[in-house]
Amino acid sequence: MENKGIKNNENNNIKVLGWVAFFGGLSQDMIVPILPTFYTQILGLSKEMVGLIEGSVTTVVSLMRIISGIISDKIGKRKSIVFIGYLFSAIGRVLLPLSNGAAMVFGLRLVDGIGKGTKDAPRDALVAKSSKMKNMGFSFGFQRMLDTLGSFLGPLITAGLMILFAKYIDSIKYRLIFLIAGLVAFITIILIGLFVVEQNGERVSSSFKLDLSVFKGKFLLFFIVMLIFTLGNSSDAFLILRARSVGVKDSTIPIIIAMFNLFYALLSVPSGVLSDKIGRVNVIRLGWIIYAVTYLGFALAKLPWHIWVLYAIYGVYYSTTEGVAKSLVAHIVDDSNRGTAFGLYNASMGLLALPASFIAGYLWDKVSPAAPFYFGAICSIMAVFLITLFKIEKS
């Protein structure tokens, strides 16, 4: 009876954490589409200030991913840290309507960023601990599916609310949407507090020093390969710029992105299940090949309909790599170090996005708009070669 209860708790955790990811993604992506306009037109912030705020948020998220991952390993608990992370994000979002200037909005966005970074690594470790090894791909695919469905619905709900609140002035309209998004974020707190069961891990020590022992063996090899791939994986803002350069209308771009998220969401679970059957590295390798083909397509695109097709294929790439890569990390790292491993993995991907995007911008300006996409395709093919050479996955 005890074993059955434990199994039910583990299965329940996978489901509940999936819905936590859904409402968290929904809340975040209700805010993101209108935040730049709120910054500039409502608060009157300069572009430099906008860049400072959002750049600082990205940095804080990356740092907190490492810190929270280490702490969750050291104390051997995940749920409480995940709860705190989502609570910080919910507070930052629900108070956002009160922003009246740069200082306050900066502070609240940092609170949100601290929360986002805090919950990521321990949540991934909790998913891994709650899943059987043979079902790891399905578990992370389920998380990505619901998270991305939230990202798909969030902008659509915001668009509907913009129409519903059309009679209000912009200042009130945006603040009402922020308030609703903040209240949605509190659903994650209720779900975690009431329905997620802690899966106690081994407490490593009371010292909170960075344990670099995780950088060894198959994790180190995979980490190196991911860095090479990520160097060519610049911000998706360049995809939008490319779409505009071949004649896609600004009003059409949100619809294309929604379509991308839909493909990503619907194929995440099948990709995860496939990785459980044929191996995670095999699916990741397939995803990187799809990425290379997609980026070559963006380099060669001439007509708007090309962009529609390429974004759909791009959604397939995301579905075969995001959740599957995390399940591979869980597969090759012991439970006692998974929080640290996920923190380092997630943070490095975020931090390397800056040089990757700088390289892409330089190539766009100095060579041609197609050059960043050729570079991304080359990095992807290199990663495919190395991940095959290194034989990373455990048998």
Automatic annotation (TrEMBL):
MF terms (GO), sorted A to Z: transmembrane transporter activity
Keyword vocabulary terms for this entry: Membrane, Transmembrane, Transmembrane helix, Transport
Membrane topology: Multi-pass membrane protein
PROSITE patterns linked: MFS
Domain annotation Major facilitator superfamily (MFS) profile: ranges: 13-395
Annotated Gene Ontology cellular component terms: plasma membrane
Protein name according to UniProt: Major facilitator superfamily MFS_1
Provenance organism: Thermoanaerobacter wiegelii Rt8.B1
